[in-house]
Amino acid sequence: MSKVASETEYQVCTNCIMDTSDPKITFDSNGMCDYCTNFYELIEPNWNPGEIGVNKIMPIINKIKEEGKDKEHDCLIGISGGLDSSYVAYIAVKKFGLRPLMFHCDTGWNSDLGVSNIQKIIEGLNLDLVTEVVNWEEMKDLQRAFFKSQVPFVDTPQDLALFSAIYNFAAKNNFKYVITGGNISTECVRESLDWTYFSTDTKHVKDIHKKFGDKELKTFPMCDILKYKTVYRWINGIQVIKLLDSVPYIKKEAIKELNRLFGWQEYPQKHYESRFTRFFESFWTPKKFHFDKRRAYFSSEILTGQMTRNEAIERISKPELDEITMRNEFEYVAKKLDFTVDEFEKIFQGENKSFKDYKNNYFFITLGTKISKILGLENRKFR
């Protein structure tokens, strides 16, 4: 029998490092959290990275090749410069012989290393790249609105742009197959919605922008989850393929391979190809909302055998960035978003809010995820 930890009782999982900074976490009588139970009972038994997984995915790979044989490109892959998207491009080309068009959405926050890594993959694999640049004034206005709203997931505008841009492009240009870097190996723990609310809930996005934004979002890429799941899937016929779930994907080995072949360089932490995400995850959420998204990342690696619990405890015990660097990043983000440092400090010190304080489609989206779990389309825990 599992139980929800009380508000005053701190507890950390005895198997991974997820803890009660996730307000909905539960533990069994042995102190193991529900993320671990979900992994062992639902995810691991249905996950076959290797020969079985390759054999299962080959029919769709052959279909992609057959349908795309007279086209310049047979599929679409989004690339951020991060490890997942870089490695899936390599696997798609070198292991499966696909001919992808690479797609990048520039939100105005690319790190220099991220740009360099994209270029190395594109040149190393001799691929074509299309880049969509989001209107900076609109991006800035929406990001300012999210900071003013005081919700935890201020990375929603960037996440929404990245997600929407590639699927809008796929639909417009008649791409039927989108290969993503999403994977079980490093992402089997999907943290609480209190940490990371659905960026594709455009009702939520539009309400926050209406309350705190100043500019009309004329060109900002928007694709809500309903359009993605219905129109794009069933009318446009777009299929999303998580290729990395079918092959062995060990993070450290993938980094070494990309470095050896292309000179690809490692980041200190997942998602740090975006300078904004680096600031958001290393400074804003731990210091303002008192949760650390690395707990989910490291716990995923613990469950998939890539990190020991002791190694994760050691990593989580100290920040990825030193105090001076984080303060410099605070000032950089404030200036880039046209806040004074004092204005940004007031927002930082302001009263924390939740996605529940604004209009949202939480009921319908969570209903859809429950149906997906029943149908076996999604095994990760959402709550």
What does this structure look like?
The chain has 383 residues and is α/β, with parallel strands linked by helices. The chain has a single domain (3-374), classed as HUPs (Rossmann fold). 49% of the residues lie in helices and 8% in strands. It contains 15 helices and 7 strands. The protein has helices at residues 34-43, 51-67, 83-94, 112-125, 136-149, 156-172, 202-212, 225-235, 251-262, 275-289, 294-303, 309-316, 323-336, 341-349, 362-374, and strands at residues 3-4, 26-27, 75-78, 100-106, 128-133, 177-180, 239-242. The strands form 2 sheets. It has a 5-stranded parallel sheet, with helices on both faces. It has a two-stranded antiparallel ribbon with strand order 1-2. The two termini are 18 Å apart. The relative contact order is 0.15.
Rg, alpha carbons: 21 Å
CATH class: Alpha Beta
Helix percent reads 40-55%
Q: What is the strand tally?
A: 7
Largest sheet, in brief, is:
5 strands, parallel
- When the domains are counted, the total is 1
What sort of overall outline do the alpha carbons produce when their principal axes are compared? globular
End-to-end CA span: 18 Å
- In DSSP terms (H or I, runs of 4 or more residues), the helix count works out at 15
**CATH fold naming:** Rossmann fold
**Uncertain residue segments:** 1-6
CATH architecture, please?
A: 3-Layer(aba) Sandwich
How much strand? 5-15%
> What class, by secondary structure content?
alpha/beta
CATH superfamily, please?
HUPs
Strand order in space, largest sheet: 5-4-3-6-7
Mean pLDDT: 93
Order of helices and strands: EEHHEHEHEHHEHHEHHHHHHH
